[in-house]
Amino acid sequence: MTRMMKNTALMAAAGLALAACGTRDPEAGNSLYGQLQEAVAPAVARVGGGGRAPAQAAAPLSAEQMAARALAANPAPLILAGLESSGATQVMAMTGQNGDMRTYMTPNEQALIIRNGMLTGTKGLGHDLSVAEADGPAALIRARRAGQATRINRYLGGDGVERPLPMTCTVATGEGKSFGFAGRAWSATQVMETCEGGGVEVQNSYLVTASGQIPVSRQWISPQLGYVTIQTIRP
Q: Regarding predicted confidence, which is higher, 229 or 34?
């Protein structure tokens, strides 16, 4: 708890809450890496002092600038998360770890729970993912191997009843990519997870290294929230 409070306070003091403001380049969508990079590239800092005129707002920050500020302000593992439904992009710091399960949190206590790069739950976003049971797809994805598996996403309804969403998933691999972000070089393979079930079709995208790390991904949360793009700042 002490570490969580320290990390959250550091992030709040450094003003790391950020909101996305870019437009989509149609040509970037032609590749998986283009889609993932584009989703977190443009952002603008939220500034305090509610009475300020728009002209006094901070200049837009790139993803690299956001990452540099976060690295300087917080020693914890860090990610950059972009929620496509709201257009918000925020730096999130790891506030807790249980085995290979990590919790990343914003200053206002919105959280992503990630296991070895795979999204397993969210908190504080509304219409949250209670838990994703996805060991089968995760094994294929992290091994960069094509195949079929099942996953179950569970959601808690307003009546307090948990509702499962079982899906059948097909994992396919694509070409390799070398790229850099936040002062770190990566070499990874594109992996796509396409899932269907309950009248829903989902397409999750990952860049996976030879060791099974997932430095960049685009993963589905829920029907209401849609996708979140996650980019590693500090592993």
A: 229
Q: How far is CA 104 from CA 85, 113, 117, 145, 182, in A?
A: 19, 6, 12, 28, 18
Cβ 123 vs Cβ 113: under 8 Å: yes
Q: Establish if 38 belongs to a structural domain.
A: no
pLDDT band at 46 (very low <50, low <70, confident <90, very high): very low
- Its pTM surpasses 0.85: no
Q: At residue 45, does pLDDT exceed 70?
A: no
Cβ pair 89, 18 in contact under 8 A: yes
Structure tokens at 75: 């020693």
User: What helix, strand, coil percent values describe the chain, rounded to 5?
Assistant: 20, 50, 30
Looking at the structure of the chain, the number of domains it has is 1
Give the pLDDT score at 34.
57
Q: What is the spatial distance between Cα 60 and Cα 21, in angstroms, rounded to a whole number?
A: 8
Q: What is the CATH number of the domain that holds 226?
A: 2.40.360.10
Burial class for 99, CB neighbours closer than 10 Å (0-12, 13-18, 19+):
exposed
Phi-psi map region of 35: left, alpha, beta (phi>0 left; psi -120 to 50 alpha): alpha
Q: Between 63-73 and 2-14, two packed helices, what is the crossing angle to 10 degrees?
A: 130
- 213 within domain boundaries: yes
> Would you state the structure tokens that stand for residue 143, as one six-digit string?
């091994």
In a domain, 151, yes or no: yes
